[in-house]
Design brief:
The protein is mostly helical. The protein is about 65% helix and about 0% strand. The protein contains 15 helices and two strands. Helix 2 (about 40-50) packs across helix 3 (about 50-60), helix 4 (about 70-85) runs antiparallel to helix 5 (about 90-100) and helix 13 (about 255-260) packs antiparallel against helix 15.
Length: about 290
Amino acid sequence: MSAISSFQDGLDVSRPDEMTPEEIEAYRSEYTGSNKGLLDSFEFWLEFRPDVLKRHKARTRHYSNTVEPAYPLVGLLGAIHQYTIAAFKEGVAYEIRLAQTNGAPRTDILDTLSVAFIHSGHRGMYAAADYSEYLRSYVDPPPAPRFPESWSFDPQAFDSGMDYSVREASREDMDRVQEWYVRTLGELPRYVRFLAQHRPGLLKAYRDRYEHAIRDSLPKQMLPWLMLNYNVVRGFHEGIRENVLLGRALGMTREQLLDAICFGVLHAGANALGIAEEAAGDLLRQYE
């Protein structure tokens, strides 16, 4: 396990009540040099309460594990997903720039936005659309390792076998999708059972979006990572459990799943992890 430095983004977070001009310069250089730009939220605290910014920064490195190699792009795409759903257009913009700096081709960004649209509705996509011009002129960075070695791109990974050439949902469609959940997760989520009984066409239409959201480059493991992180933030018990089960089925490690869960603290606070424990604590303990 690697030691965590006292410095985060140029700031000595081990001394929160002290701030030197050298630290401020190093911090601003870090943010402008990464193509993210200076953030008004952090500049506010830098002016009025630097200790608040330092204590916030001291927490961020603990979101992700120190056992496995770090792949910063995973969390950056998670931020794009979360900010799109929240319709935080400034956040979408700076995280896209930072993701590009960290190796994301444009297809990674578009696949992530496609997943986000499942939950964001029009509000989120209007926020993303504000950055369309940047995406039109987006220059892919040179190819480099972006994700854990065991992760892989597989656009057919979530294929339930339903016939999407027909809009109506048949009995065979419902059998196939329910079999997919049981085979993949080991259990059938209640919303699937509910929709299969009462609104089968809606379940089929939802799965059509879900199965085809990732089309061009994201590894299949990013789908449960994004969905797990989002469900921790919004406190949805069943969404947390479903995506821990899915991530496990796709070969994600316990630490990777915990990264997705703990990144949720940024937007939901530590109390949200009580719901994660209730929903999937038993599954995470099985890894041990």
